[in-house]
Description:
Elements: H1 3-6, H2 15-32, E1 39-42, E2 46-49, H3 50-66, E3 71-74, E4 86-94, H4 96-101, E5 107-114, E6 117-125, E7 130-135, E8 140-142, E9 145-146, E10 159-162, H5 168-183, E11 188-190, H6 195-203, E12 209-213, H7 217-229, E13 233-235, E14 248-252, H8 257-264
Parallel strand pairs: 3-4, 10-11, 10-12
Antiparallel strand pairs: 1-2, 4-5, 5-6, 6-7, 7-8, 8-9, 12-14, 13-14
Helix pairs in contact: 2-3, 6-7
The site of D-MYO-inositol-1-phosphate has 14 residues, from β4.
Amino acid sequence: MKLTELLPFRAKSLEKPMIEAAHAAGKVLLAHFNRKLEIREKKGAGLVTQADLAAEKAIVTRLKKARGDFGFLTEEAPEKHGKGKGRWIIDPLDGTTNFVHGFPMFCVSIAAEWEGQIVAGVIYHPILKDTYTAVLGQGAFLNRKRIQVSPTSKLRDSLLTTGFTYRKNQWLRTEMDSFERLSGICRAIRRPGSAALDLAYTARGVFDGFWERRLSPWDVAAGALLVQEAGGKVTNFKGEPFDINAREILATNASLHEELKKTVAPEFCEI
Ligand code: IPD
Ligand code: CA
Ligand code: CA
């Protein structure tokens, strides 16, 4: 029996309030975009502005109304209330640095978790009015049209994407080593600055693969489901099943997974 059949509600029923919450947050973000912002630096975790906080409030208010029994894991408040089996995992603004500098690659990311399994995900890219949705076992969609990962089968033909952690001292060298190895093999690598959009663009077949270290659950929960539901593969760097708490992610169109894994983190490969 599929997990979605064991849920005491239809996983699909979560989608509507998630989309409404994401759109409400997107509206808040657009109202602040390219305006004067109060910017604060979080220790080793990037920037936060009043737009992040207001967008998070808009989401939490709506989702509390939709399902009072769900708890929350949010980036900015860490609201953790709720003892039930369900939980919302929220990044109200993924790509805050882009947002602060007026670069339009930023989004809202919301996932629904039930007993530790992500069952639904929504990513909203407000500048383009692009809404990505996925429900476990039911496919991935962009503006209600089904999306699929790319058919690319050779790394040398691939367009990849990645990101670098804010903790530069500790990780920069390792990240640069992976970047350099892959730069020599693939067609090109992009570094757009929003992990959730990196995953959404991998799910829709624009990017062939994505990897990043030191991410948090709210960066990846919705996007990882999108990639899987679009036919892709998502693991840690050892190739083990993906866990949102793992802090590292390798997401591909499935065909390139093994080859990309070996090049990103050769230390985990058997000799
Ligand atoms: C960040 C973005 C970025 C990634 C960082 C994340 P934030 O999230 O996803 O692409 O490289 O590691 O923390 O701080 O903008 O929500
Ligand atoms: Ca984020
Ligand atoms: Ca954020």
